[in-house]
Write a structure and sequence with these properties.
- The chain has four domains: 207 residues, no CATH class; 170 residues, Rossmann fold, CATH 3.40.50; 152 residues, YVTN repeat-like/Quinoprotein amine dehydrogenase (Methylamine Dehydrogenase, Chain H), CATH 2.130.10.10; 153 residues, no CATH class.
- A seven-stranded mixed sheet has the order 8-7-6-9-10-11-12. A seven-stranded antiparallel sheet has the order 31-32-33-34-35-37-38.
- It is of the alpha+beta class.
- It is built from 22 helices and 38 strands.
- Helix 3 crosses helix 9, helix 12 crosses helix 14 and helix 16 runs parallel beside helix 17.
- A hairpin with a 4-residue loop joins strand 19 and strand 20.
């Protein structure tokens, strides 16, 4: 048996099974296989139309025939007319035999309803998107999300067998009825398409531009822009770079702007009227003095020069270079679809930008060349560039439109044609390009491989001016560089608040550990969100906390990790969906706002973290965000994974030991004073030096004292803390409280368990104390010195002093200035 027989035999066997209608289906063949009609007797479609659509789908394989027929019916104008066909589809599954593995009746009814809703979306499309050549584009987009029933390798052979008519004799006989599960599988793609395209506007936008949603318009500027500002001052490339869908186009355009150089017009030396004398004047340089002036004697010549009576030649000014307007013709036919379309548009933007930013700005007009006509383009605005992305024409090449453009709108200046490099080797286009050559000055060709070539026409001949190659994969599809969040620090606050990162570790305050606010992994550490929305991180049980984020939004928190050093937190709440990445090794924080992707949000959404991705279930489907690549992987996935076990177990004992080593923080402070002229008193607790016999060292501790029994001579300089708090950081839930002594010294009580002191003596650096009770505490000075417990200072501080030395250099000097 020959190889051809091996290919034909399967197609001959598959064709009847694929094209015959199942028994009790909503459709059937009539008129000897020339017409497909509804069970009601109305015409559904003709064989020629079905063959044309199926032939257009062979590259990706053939979907189930029932789905193709329903989509064909929705494209027809008769779909919106009153008939019984929609009712037939609603109840067609009820006539099918029942098997044990069939979906439930509720699931089948839900699926059928979604199929009909999507067909209604298709029916409401403008006629120019569901008829003619655009209809094939619609079918390809709808069925691109479904695995084909007939593979791409077999599709052409199957259609050839069907077109031969050899299998027409069996089309009059129905095959056995399919089960409800098979019926459900055949219509799954149409039902899921409603998640991808919930409205006619969304489907039309995708068909025109390939985008699911246009970027939000930029807010109106506070001040009106000057009318004299050029269009490019709006910084079009910055606008394109800000939007993730056009960021790749902006990066490629920036590369082309730097590399693309427009050849200048060449002139002969004799063509330029330079060097003549245009006038005579009484001012000028001595080298332009008229020779006749030298006929005077020295005294007369000197007098004429001093009195500005001597005559000089005035040279003729060199002519300004001719400014010729430039025209850009962007090919939008079939060869330029996909990556070449973006490549060509980037080249057009770069050409226009270089023209307008040259030493002598040149006006640029742009046109989209289709198969027959040229359409004006606006490459000066963001909306115009988005519209240019949607200019697609299914014609094989733009030769006729190029000739028509040259006849109706001959280029008054330099005309550039941007097209695909492979078209230069097609005879029909090459012939028409040669006819249009007199109207062209430049030709720029692009290839999917990233090759760009610029040609220049001179005296009817085309010569290569320059060539370049770009990595389109990296420029167009690589995610934009991730930028860490920058936090505002108060410029007039304590010196401690202006240090990034904080020079001391924080004690734990306002935290009730639960599975909803804490993440723990042995290789990473503990990350928790406090009651006041602070994000704290404990790298180990031997140190206090690092504040990674001063404030995070309130909502439902979903944790994830890469298993090494990055912890992810997704915040889901009303009108809010954000993902944070906390790089624990450096303390950097990155954030992406996904609220616009799932708006409007009325409440928190179901979320699952799996395989490094967040899966967010919303009305349009499932949004999948890849945390490792920091980009959206899918916006309307039909799969929402099952909830997996949390990495944080309900056994909190080991986590509590990790984040709290028995420290109690002094929160309520109403007064401060000085005890025995050498120790600060903070709400009945004295800051004292305590000897440790086991280590033969001193420790700094807040020890409880019965102040009521202390005389006024022993307890001095008592001041009250202002009961009224005020926000100083971005987190307005953290209220600081002031206190001040009569000499001008004072400070702030920090609700995070710290006390900041500032002396009236400018030579004494600011001091920050950790307010923990009954345990060794720590202190920091604004000149970088630290002392005390390594739990708060860290294991290896840059400038560590003994407690005795720190007390002598800073604390005692602060107290002494109080008098």
């Amino acid at each position: 048996m020959s190889e051809q027989d091996i290919k034909v035999k399967p197609a001959r066997e598959l064709a009847p099974g694929y094209f015959r209608n199942p028994r009790d289906s909503f459709w059937r063949w009539v008129e000897k296989g020339k017409i497909v009609e509804w069970r009601s007797g109305d015409t559904l479609c003709y064989r020629e139309e079905l063959a044309r659509v199926l032939r257009g789908l062979t590259e990706s394989g053939l979907p189930p025939l029932a789905s193709v027929l329903l989509l064909l019916a929705a494209c027809a104008d008769s779909w919106s007319e009153p008939n019984d066909n929609i009712s037939v589809i609603k109840h067609s599954w009820q006539q099918l035999p029942v098997e044990s593995d069939d979906p439930s009746e509720a699931a089948l009814e839900w699926q059928t309803q979604h199929v009909l809703q999507f067909l209604g979306v298709v029916s409401a499309l403008p006629a120019n998107l569901r008829t003619g050549e655009p209809k094939l584009h619609l079918f390809r987009e709808v069925f691109s999300a479904q695995a084909p029933q007939i593979s791409a390798e077999m599709a052409s052979a199957l259609l050839d067998e069907w077109n031969s008519g050899l299998s027409d004799s069996v089309l009059h006989f129905s095959r056995s009825a399919v089960t409800r599960r098979v019926f459900s599988n055949e219509l799954t793609c149409l039902a899921q398409s409603l998640n991808r395209f919930p409205t006619t506007e969304a489907l039309a936008l995708h068909l025109r531009t390939g985008l699911d949603k246009l970027p939000e318009p930029l807010p109106a500027p506070v001040l009106p822009e000057p009318t004299s500002v050029a269009p490019e001052s709006a910084d079009l490339l910055d606008q394109l770079a800000r939007d993730p869908r056009t960021a790749g186009l902006a990066r490629l355009t920036q590369q082309l702007v730097a590399a693309l150089r427009i050849p200048l017009h060449a002139r002969g030396a004799s063509d330029q009227p330079i060097g003549g004398v245009s006038d005579v004047t009484n001012r000028g340089n001595l080298d332009r003095l008229l020779l006749s002036e030298l006929a005077h004697d020295d005294d007369v010549l000197l007098a004429r020069l001093v009195n500005n009576e001597a005559l000089y030649m005035r040279r003729e000014a060199p002519p300004r270079p001719d400014v010729k307007p430039r025209t850009v013709l962007l090919d939008t036919t079939l060869r330029m679809w996909g990556v070449p379309r973006v490549f060509g548009l980037a080249a057009a933007l770069a050409w226009a930008r270089n023209s307008r930013q040259s030493q002598q700005p040149v006006p640029v007009a742009a046109f989209a060349l289709g198969g027959q006509f040229a359409t004006p383009l606006n490459l000066d605005t963001f909306d115009g560039v988005v519209a240019a992305l949607g200019q697609l024409d299914p014609a094989p090449h733009a030769g006729p439109a190029l000739l028509e453009f040259g006849r109706t709108l001959p280029a008054a200046g330099d005309c550039l044609l941007i097209t695909d490099a492979q078209l230069l080797h097609q005879a029909a286009f090459a012939r028409q390009l040669a006819e249009a050559a007199p109207a062209l000055r430049f030709l720029l060709t692009v290839e999917r491989s990233g090759e760009l070539q610029l040609y220049e026409y001179q005296n009817g001949h085309r010569t290569l001016a320059s060539t370049a190659r770009y990595d389109l994969e990296a420029l167009l599809f690589t995610a934009a560089p991730r930028q860490p969040l920058l936090f505002r620090t108060p410029t007039d606050g304590p010196a401690f608040l202006q240090q990034v990162p904080a020079p001391l570790y924080y004690p734990v305050t306002g935290l009730r550990v639960s599975i909803n606010n804490t993440f723990y992994a042995a290789k990473v550490g503990v990350l928790s969100i406090t009651d006041r929305q602070r994000v704290l991180f404990w790298p180990s049980k031997d140190t206090g906390a690092r504040e990674l984020l001063p404030e995070i939004e309130s909502g439902a928190y979903h944790f994830g990790s890469d298993g090494f050093g990055t912890v992810y937190v997704l915040v889901s709440a009303r009108q809010l969906l954000r993902i944070y990445a906390f790089i624990t090794a450096t303390g950097e924080v990155e954030m992406v706002d996904l609220t616009a992707e799932v708006a409007p949000l009325k409440d928190a959404l179901p979320v699952v973290f799996k395989d490094g991705c967040y899966h967010v279930q919303c009305a349009e489907g499932t949004l999948v965000f890849d945390c490792r690549r920091w980009e959206i992987r899918d916006r309307r996935s039909s799969i929402f994974p099952a909830q997996t076990a949390s990495a944080f177990r309900p056994n909190f004992s080991h986590v509590k030991r990790h984040i709290n080593s028995g420290f109690n923080v002094l929160h309520r402070v109403n007064y401060l004073g000085v005890l025995n002229r050498n120790a600060l008193v903070i709400e009945g607790h004295a800051l004292l030096l305590v000897s440790n016999p086991s280590t033969l060292t001193h420790e700094l501790q807040l020890m409880s004292k019965n102040i009521s029994t202390v005389s006024d001579e022993v307890l001095r300089h008592v001041i009250q803390v202002d009961p009224k708090g005020f926000p100083l950081l971005a987190n307005e839930q953290l209220l600081f409280r002031r206190f001040a002594w009569p000499d001008g010294s004072g400070g702030l009580l920090d609700p995070r368990g710290l006390l900041h002191l500032r002396s009236a003596d400018a030579t004494v650096p600011e001091i920050t104390l950790v307010l923990v009770l009954g345990q060794p505490t720590a202190a920091w000075a604004a000149d970088g010195a630290v002392c005390g417990s390594p739990y708060f200072t860290g294991p290896n501080p840059a400038r560590h002093l003994s407690v005795l030395e720190f007390d002598r250099q800073y604390l005692q000097r602060f107290i002494a200035h109080l008098g």
